[in-house]
Design brief:
single chain; alpha+beta; six-stranded antiparallel β-sheet; two-stranded antiparallel ribbon; 14 helices; 16% strand
Length: 337
């Protein structure tokens, strides 16, 4: 009874999803059919799921600790390809880039519970013709950098606002504009929560449902959570000092940071000088902490020559909420093209 209630709550939370999706529902269905036609006939499970201990030592159980609540879905898909493919969660995504054309790519992602694999397709529409091509081939991917380096992406990583990183060298079909950096950053903008919770709660007893809820709400690793807290504190401090002059300051700051350095990188001394030029004063301790966070972030360059300009500005003042970002893309997309 409780599992039915939780599943119903999950459906209610995701009831408005088709209206919230940036992509037209028929477009997403078109991409979904293309994905299924590409994946049918492939041996399953394509990537066997290996039990993993909980990486962060928190009270929330890891995937391997929920054998009935989550991993039973894996067992159901082992011998039946259609059953395995049907247990999927779809999500919308966008590329984190400063390239005006790439930022408007319409991406549709799918997470398969049968083997924890991910694939991301790009939807294109030309007049009366539509196409869907894989941007990220189906596979089991791991966190390439950061505190969770080497840990595979799991279903709790697929949530609104999360950023998935993929090694560009592993995807030779990527366009040059997206493969110029070692890591391709994909931001999840929307998730089919109705399907996600329905698959995980269906037919489970109350204890298993609570375990699934704890699994889905796993906190960040302690070190990563502390870094996020410090970065939020610095952003709040900077935003309060920019009040009343934010637009003028950020435009000038961006212009000055892009004016020097090499390959779009900002050096430590260059950033410090630019902040002083626009009267953004930080103590030496705060600046050292900021630079450490910039150079240790997942999207940072592999060398210590500097940090990317766009990542630098984003870290300084924060980013736009995904709901607002979706509205901006809907308005500005037709204007840009």
């Amino acid at each position: 009874e409780e599992s039915s209630r939780m599943a119903k709550e999950g459906e209610e939370e995701g009831a408005g999803l088709p209206l919230q999706m940036d992509l037209n529902a028929s477009h997403f269905d078109f991409v979904e059919q293309k994905v299924l036609s590409h994946e049918r006939g492939k041996p399953l499970p394509l990537f066997p799921v290996q039990p993993q201990p909980h990486p962060h030592g928190t009270g929330a159980p890891a995937l391997a600790q929920i054998p009935k609540a989550v991993q039973s879905h894996v067992a159901l898909g082992v011998g039946v390809a259609e059953t395995a493919l049907s247990r999927r969660v779809r999500f919308e995504a966008r590329v984190l880039t400063q390239n005006g054309r790439d930022v408007h790519r319409e991406l549709c992602g799918f997470f398969f519970l049968a083997d924890n694999s991910i694939t991301i397709y790009e939807f294109r529409h030309f007049g009366k013709k539509s196409s869907a091509l894989p941007l990220i081939q189906r596979g089991v991917y791991t966190h390439p950098t950061g505190h969770r380096q080497g840990e595979p992406y799991q279903i709790n990583c697929i949530r609104k606002g999360a950023t998935l990183y993929f090694e560009s060298s592993s995807h030779p079909s990527l366009p040059i504009s997206l493969s110029s950096r070692p890591l391709l950053a994909i931001r999840v903008t929307n998730v089919d929560e109705k399907t996600k919770k329905g698959l995980l709660f269906e037919g489970r007893n109350p204890l298993e449902c609570r375990q699934v809820e704890a699994y889905l709400s796993q906190p960040l690793p302690p070190a990563e959570e502390e870094e996020q807290r410090l970065l939020t504190t610095i952003q709040g401090m900077l935003c309060s000092r920019l009040r009343g002059r934010a637009s003028r300051t950020l435009v000038g700051l961006g212009r000055q940071l892009r004016g020097g350095g090499k390959a779009g990188l900002v050096r430590r001394s260059q950033l410090q000088q630019a902040l002083r030029a626009f009267h953004i004063n930080l103590t030496q301790e705060d600046f050292q902490e900021l630079w450490r966070l910039l150079t240790s972030s997942p999207g940072a360059p592999p060398s210590e020559d500097g940090v990317y300009v766009d990542c630098c500005i984003h870290s300084l003042v924060g980013g736009m909420a995904e709901d607002r970002k979706t509205l901006v893309r809907k308005v500005c997309g037709p204007v840009a093209f």
